[in-house]
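Supplementary Methods, section 5.1.

A reviewer requested that the exact input to the structure prediction be made available. We therefore reproduce it here, unchanged from the version used in the analyses.
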Amino acid sequence: MTYLIDTHWIASFLNGREEARQLFQALTFQESAMSLVTYGEIYEGIYYGRNPLQSERSFQQFLRALAVLPLNRAILRQFGRIRGDLRRRGEIIGDPDILIAATALHHNLTLVTQNRQHFERIPELQLYRSDAP
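The structure derived from this sequence is encoded token-by-token as follows.
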């Protein structure tokens, strides 16, 4: 596994956006995973979206091809380290983003995100660049 896909890209793919489809073609599902946090964020969109039943069916089908990485104690220790460092520097971001970053760091994965502004605050985190997959 090489990549951890952030919520925005997965939601975009599920909503049929072409740029997301192209991204997933370039990365391949076998190289990619999502965090359990992203799983929860996607379900928020399902439950409060326009067509929850159809959206859930699409997501369940999507999950057949993509691994979901659980949280564990080591990831939560990493979360605490990242959050404390960001707080100390006055650059705190949301806990879900920190948990996603901690998951990527724990598994030594490159994070694929469109929210670079938040994630660039975490020095050790490798971010996907479309010009260098």
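The first strand starts at residue 3 and ends at 5. These observations are discussed further in the main text.
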